[in-house]
Specification:
Elements lengths: L1 H19 L1 E3 L4 H68 L4 H11 L1 H4 L5 E7 L4 E7 L5 H72 L3 E3 L4 H17 L2
Antiparallel strand pairs: 1-4, 2-3
């Protein structure tokens, strides 16, 4: 009976020690839930960012269409200005080609109708004693001269305005070109960030899925005790058996 108890004690201790060498990774349900929650949160954030980006892309498309319309209108206005300048040059040339006094008088009446309405104005001929030649003159009331002076000053001022506006248009064209360059760079940068973010998120999803799968299917390894542990366990069994009377 004593021998049986000793053997039983030794076997029990050996089994106890053997089970202490069984190493297993049990399913960590809390960790899995945490990872799944984080992935869901990141997915929602990613979807929100993509929705925001799509909205901004739509707004950019609308603005691009508006810019195109305004650019077309600007080009049309520039064409109109060039046409007006060509018409002005043609008018000046036609005036300089006038050879008859009657033609000149008719042109004055057309350009300055307020002069034409005067009761006494027209063409007269005066003889120049010094030069010994008769010249034709257009005469009109003296204060009509202010009309010519005002038109002259307006012409000078308008010419200066045209020069400044031309410079302003050139500067605006350069500013628009620079803004377009900045816009293209911003769009390229945004596209690069979006590509990098999508790549990183895809890799994270794959890694997270692999980790969750690993946690759901843990590896269990059984290690048998070495000789030193067996001898120690046997000794403990002998002591326990010997203690039983």
């Amino acid at each position: 009976m004593k021998k049986f108890l000793i053997i039983l004690g030794v076997v029990s201790v050996l089994l106890l020690v053997g089970f202490t060498y069984v190493s297993a990774r049990f399913i960590d349900r809390g960790k899995i839930a945490q990872l799944q929650t984080e992935q869901a949160q990141l997915t929602r954030q990613r979807d929100s960012i993509l929705a925001f980006a799509r909205t901004r892309d739509s707004l950019q498309a609308i603005l691009a269409d508006s810019v195109q319309v305004l650019t077309s209108q600007t080009s049309a206005l520039r064409d109109t200005v060039r046409q007006l300048e060509s018409a002005r040059q043609a008018t000046v040339l036609s005036i300089r080609r006038l050879r008859q006094t009657s033609e000149l008088q008719a042109r004055v009446a057309a350009v300055f109708p307020e002069v034409a309405r005067a009761s006494r104005w027209g063409v007269t001929e005066l003889y120049d004693d010094r030069e010994g030649v008769a010249l034709e003159y257009i005469f009109f009331p003296a204060f009509f001269a202010e009309t010519f002076m005002i038109d002259h000053e307006n012409a000078l001022n308008y010419k200066q305005q045209v020069g400044k506006l031309s410079t302003l248009d050139t500067l605006n064209t350069q500013v628009i070109a620079l803004k377009d360059s900045v816009f293209v760079l911003e769009r390229q940068k945004s596209a690069a960030f979006r590509t990098g973010y999508d790549s990183a998120f895809t890799k994270y999803e794959a890694l997270n899925a692999d980790y969750i799968a690993y946690l759901k299917n843990p590896k269990v390894g059984i290690k048998f005790p070495g000789w030193l542990a067996l001898v120690g366990s046997a000794a403990v069994g002998v002591v326990v058996g010997s203690a039983i009377k």
